[in-house]
Design goal:
The complex is a heterodimer of chains A (372) and B (372).
Chain A: H1 2-13, H2 15-31, H3 35-54, H4 57-61, H5 70-86, H6 91-118, H7 124-146, E1 169-171, E2 184-189, E3 192-197, H8 198-216, H9 218-228, H10 230-235, H11 240-266, E4 268-270, H12 274-288, H13 298-323, H14 326-371
Antiparallel strand pairs in A: 1-4, 2-3
Chain B: H1 2-12, H2 14-29, H3 37-56, H4 58-63, H5 72-88, H6 90-96, H7 105-137, H8 142-163, E1 183-185, E2 200-207, E3 209-216, H9 218-236, H10 238-248, H11 250-255, H12 260-286, E4 288-290, H13 299-308, H14 318-343, H15 348-371
Antiparallel strand pairs in B: 1-4, 2-3
Helix pairs in contact in B: 2-14, 3-9, 3-12, 3-13, 3-14, 5-7, 5-8, 5-12, 7-12, 9-10, 10-12, 13-14, 13-15, 14-15
The chains are: A mainly alpha (372), B mainly alpha (372).
Chain lengths: 372, 372
C-alpha cells in the first residue's frame, strides 16, 4: 500500500511529462514518420534549443520565476548577428564576434531588467513579460529606423529599399550550421543515417557543467538562499537586490548566446519575429519537462526539449492523418504551448496559497491549544 | 506655481505627463504639416467609441483587487461567439421579431446588434464564473495567469472555429464548405448599428479652426455613456461598495462580513461580460469580425488605455477610462499621420508598442513602491 502511494505521488508530481508521453505515444504512429527521421529531427532540435532553455535555470534558482525577459538577450544576440552579417565575417569567427558584440548589449539590458524587477517583487513574471514587449518596441525602433541611419549598415542586401531599416528576413548563410557541422559525425540508424551536431552538443554539455559548478559557488549558494526566503537571506548579509540583478544578467547574456546558436542552425533570421517565439517556446518546453516556477533542473530541460519538440514534429502530420486538416494540429500545438504555461502557473500559485493557508491554520491551531 | 506644477507631475506620474505633452504637440503640429485636423479628430472619436467599452471592462476587476484584466480575450471570445451566432441565425431572429425589409435598415441592424449582445452575455457570464473561480485559487498571481488563460483560450478557440458546425455562407470558407473565415464582414447584418444611429456630421465653421467634416458617432457615444452609467451605478450599489472594499483591504472586508471570494467572482464575471459587449461594439464600428488569432493581443491596448488615464493596479474610475481611451486612441491616430508627414515613415507601430507597454511597466513597478 505504501508503495502504491509512493507511485501515485510520483505520477502526481510528474503529471505534465506523463501526459505528454501519452500524447506522443498516440501521435507518433498516427504521423507515420520513420524512427530515423524522428531521431534526426530531435537531435537537431536539442542542439538548436537546449542552450536557450538552460539560460532560464539561474533566475528560477534565485526565486525570480520564469524569466520571460530572456527575449531581451535574444534581441541582443540578433543585433550582434545583423552587424556581423553586415561586416561579412563568416564561419566560427563570425559567430564568436556576434557573441562578443551581443554580450555588452545583453548585459546592459540585463541590468535594466534586474533593476525593474527589483521594483516589482512578487510580480516578476508579469513584469518581465511586459518588459519583453517594451524592449521589443525599442528593438524595432533601433533595427527598423536607426540601422542604416545612425548605425552604419553598408550591405544593400540587409537594408530595406528605402535606404534604412533591416529587411524582414536576413539570410545568415555565412554562419549557417557552422557549429553543427564543425565536427561531422554520421551514424547509421534503423535503415537511415543520422547526423549528430556534435560540436553544438559539446557546447551545451559545457554549459550544463557550468551550471552544476555555479550552484556550488558562493554566488550560486547566495542565489539559492534568496530563492528560499528573501528576508532570511537579507538578514544573513546577502545583498539581495544586487544578487538578483546578477542572476538576470547571467540569464540574459546566456540567452543571447542561445539565440545565436539557435539562429546558426536555422540559417535565416526573422528580424521582427524570431525573439518572440524564442521566449515562449523555451518556457513551454521547460515546463513540459516537469519543471515548476520555483524548481527546475538540467534533466527537466532535456526531457522538455524532447517531449515538446516530439509533439511539434508529429502534431501537424497526426492532425492531417486523423482529421484531414494539418491546420488543426498546428493550432493544437499552439494551444498546448500556451495551455501548459497556464496550467503550470496555476498549479504553482495554487500550491503556494495552499501551503500558506495550511501554515496559518497550524499556527492558529497551536494558539488555541495553548489558550485552552 | 513651480511647487504646484511639481505636485501635479508627481500625482500624474512622469510617463503620463510626457505622453500627454507628446499628444498635445502632435495636435499643435498637425496643421503645420498639412494634416487635416477634422479627419484626425473624427478618427480619434470613432476609435474612442470603438474601444471605450473594452477599456471599461477593466474597472470591476481592478476595483476588486484582481489586478489588470489581461484575460480580456476570454470576454472577447464570448463576444465573438455571440456575434457569429447572431449572423448564423440572423434571418430567424428578424423573422421572429417580425422585422421585414420595409422596417428600415437602421432598425434591422440594431436588432442584429442587440441579438449578438444578448447571446454573448450568458456565454460571458459562464466563462467569467469559472475564470473567477480559477483566479480565486491563485491570489497574488492573477495577472500572469490571466494572460495565459487569455492566450490559451484564444488558441483553443482557433480549433473550435474550424470545427464548429456553422452553416451561414457568408461566414464559412467557400471551397471547404466548413470552418469559419478569418475575417467576417458584418456589412449586411449590423455594420454601424450604433455608429449609424444618430450618426451626424456637425459642421463647425468660423471657429478659427477649420473643422468642416467632423463626424461624431453619436449612437456609439450614447451607448458607451449608458454602459459607463451602469458601471457607475453598480459601483455605488451595495455589492459595488463591497467589491471596492475587497480590493482596498481584503482582511478588513472579510472582518466586515463580506464574502471576499464571491465578490471577486462577481467582478470577474462583470469584466468578462463587459469585454464581450465591448468587442461587439468594436465590430459594429469596424465592420468585421476577426476570428482565430485576432483577439490575441487585444488586452494590452485596453490595459494601457486605463493606466494612461490615471488608474493604478488597484484603483480605477470611469474618468480614468474616458481620459485614457481618448489619449491612447489620440496617439494611435495622430502619430501615423503627423510623423508620416514630418519624417516620411510610419512609426506608429513602434510608438504604440513603447507607449502602451511602457505605461503598463510603470504601473506595475509603482504599485510596490506605494505599498512600502
Amino acid at each position: 500500500m505504501r508503495n502504491f502511494n509512493k507511485i501515485l505521488s510520483v505520477i502526481a508530481n510528474n503529471a505534465v511529462p506523463i501526459i505528454f508521453i501519452i500524447i506522443s505515444a498516440i501521435a507518433i504512429p498516427l504521423s507515420g514518420f520513420s524512427a530515423s527521421y524522428l531521431v534526426q529531427e530531435l537531435l537537431t532540435r536539442i542542439g538548436r534549443n537546449a542552450f536557450l532553455i538552460l539560460s532560464l535555470l539561474i533566475p528560477i534558482m534565485a526565486g525570480m520565476g520564469l524569466n520571460f525577459g530572456m527575449v531581451l538577450g535574444a534581441m541582443a544576440g540578433q543585433i550582434g548577428l545583423i552587424l556581423v552579417s553586415d561586416w561579412a565575417i563568416v564561419g566560427i569567427p563570425g559567430m564568436v564576434l556576434a557573441m562578443i558584440v551581443g554580450t555588452p548589449i545583453a548585459a546592459l539590458l540585463g541590468i535594466f531588467c534586474g533593476g525593474v524587477l527589483n521594483r516589482a517583487k512578487g510580480q516578476e513574471m508579469v513584469t518581465s513579460y511586459i518588459l519583453g514587449f517594451f524592449i521589443n518596441g525599442v528593438y524595432q525602433l533601433v533595427v527598423l529606423y536607426f540601422m542604416g541611419w545612425v548605425i552604419p549598415i553598408v550591405s544593400p542586401t540587409l537594408l530595406l529599399s528605402r535606404g534604412y531599416g533591416i529587411r524582414n528576413a536576413v539570410s545568415l548563410l555565412g554562419i549557417r550550421g557552422v557549429l553543427d557541422n564543425l565536427i561531422p559525425v554520421s551514424i547509421p540508424f534503423f535503415g537511415g543515417t543520422v547526423r549528430i551536431p556534435l560540436a553544438t552538443l559539446l557546447v551545451i554539455a559545457a554549459f550544463c557543467f557550468f551550471i552544476v559548478w555555479f550552484r556550488r559557488t558562493k554566488l550560486g549558494q547566495d542565489m539559492r538562499a534568496i530563492g528560499q526566503s528573501q528576508p532570511v537571506a537579507d538578514s544573513a548579509g546577502i545583498a539581495v537586490n544586487k544578487t538578483r540583478i546578477i542572476a538576470i544578467v547571467i540569464s540574459t547574456v546566456l540567452a543571447c548566446y542561445g539565440q545565436i546558436i539557435y539562429l546558426q542552425n536555422m540559417g535565416t533570421l526573422n528580424t521582427y519575429n524570431s525573439h518572440d517565439q524564442a521566449g515562449m517556446f523555451s518556457i513551454a518546453a521547460l515546463l513540459i519537462g516537469g519543471a515548476s516556477v520555483s524548481r527546475a533542473s538540467i534533466a527537466n530541460v532535456f526531457a522538455g526539449v524532447i517531449l515538446f519538440h516530439l509533439m511539434f514534429i508529429v502534431a501537424p502530420m497526426a492532425g492531417k492523418n486523423l482529421i484531414g486538416q494539418a491546420q488543426i494540429g498546428e493550432y493544437f500545438r499552439v494551444f498546448v504551448s500556451y495551455g501548459i504555461i497556464a496550467i503550470a502557473l496555476v498549479l504553482h500559485a495554487w500550491k503556494r496559497n495552499r501551503d500558506r493557508e495550511n501554515a496559518r491554520r497550524s499556527l492558529r491551531g497551536n494558539g488555541q491549544a495553548q489558550q485552552s | 506655481m513651480k511647487k504646484s506644477l511639481k505636485k501635479f507631475i508627481e500625482n500624474a506620474g512622469w510617463p503620463r505627463v510626457i505622453i500627454g505633452l507628446f499628444l498635445l504637440s502632435l495636435f499643435i503640429l498637425a496643421p503645420f504639416v498639412g494634416v487635416q485636423l477634422d479627419n484626425s479628430l473624427t478618427d480619434t472619436f470613432v476609435r474612442f467609441g470603438m474601444n471605450g467599452v473594452m477599456v471599461l471592462a477593466m474597472i470591476p476587476m481592478v476595483q476588486s483587487g484582481c489586478g489588470l484584466n489581461f484575460g480580456l480575450p476570454l470576454g472577447i471570445i464570448a463576444g465573438l461567439l455571440g456575434a457569429t451566432l447572431s449572423i448564423e441565425f440572423n434571418e430567424k431572429i428578424l423573422e421572429f421579431l417580425s422585422i421585414t425589409a420595409q422596417t428600415g435598415p437602421g432598425f434591422r441592424a440594431f436588432a442584429g446588434f442587440a441579438s449578438a449582445v444578448i447571446m454573448a452575455l450568458p456565454i460571458a457570464a459562464i466563462l467569467g464564473y469559472f475564470y473567477g473561480k480559477l483566479l480565486n485559487r491563485v491570489k497574488g498571481d492573477e495577472m500572469m495567469i490571466a494572460t495565459y488563460v487569455g492566450f490559451s483560450s484564444v488558441a483553443f478557440m482557433c480549433i473550435a472555429w474550424l470545427l464548429l458546425p456553422y452553416k451561414h455562407p457568408t461566414m464559412i470558407w467557400g471551397y471547404a464548405g466548413a470552418g469559419l473565415r478569418t475575417t467576417i464582414s458584418v456589412d449586411n447584418f449590423w455594420h454601424s448599428a450604433l455608429d449609424g444611429f444618430l450618426g451626424t456630421t456637425i459642421n463647425i465653421n468660423n471657429t478659427g479652426v477649420q473643422l468642416d467634416k467632423l463626424t461624431l458617432p453619436i449612437g456609439t457615444f450614447l451607448f458607451f455613456a449608458f454602459m459607463a452609467f451602469l458601471v457607475w451605478l453598480f459601483m455605488r450599489s451595495k455589492t459595488g461598495t463591497a467589491m471596492t472594499a475587497v480590493g482596498s483591504n481584503p482582511e478588513f472586508a472579510r472582518a466586515s462580513g463580506v464574502n471576499v471570494d464571491r465578490m471577486r467572482v462577481i467582478s470577474v464575471m462583470l469584466s468578462t461580460m463587459l469585454g464581450a459587449i465591448g468587442i461587439i461594439v468594436y465590430e459594429q464600428s469596424f465592420g468585421f469580425i476577426q476570428l482565430y488569432m485576432g483577439p490575441f493581443y487585444m488586452a494590452l491596448p485596453a490595459v494601457a488605455s486605463i493606466l494612461l488615464g490615471g488608474a493604478s493596479v488597484n484603483k480605477a474610475t470611469i474618468l480614468n477610462v474616458i481620459i485614457g481611451t481618448f489619449l491612447f486612441q489620440g496617439i494611435l491616430t495622430m502619430t501615423p499621420s503627423v510623423i508620416n508627414s514630418v519624417l516620411q515613415t510610419d512609426m506608429s507601430e513602434v510608438i504604440r508598442l513603447i507607449v502602451s507597454n511602457g505605461m503598463i511597466l510603470y504601473a506595475l513597478t509603482r504599485k510596490v513602491r506605494s505599498k512600502r
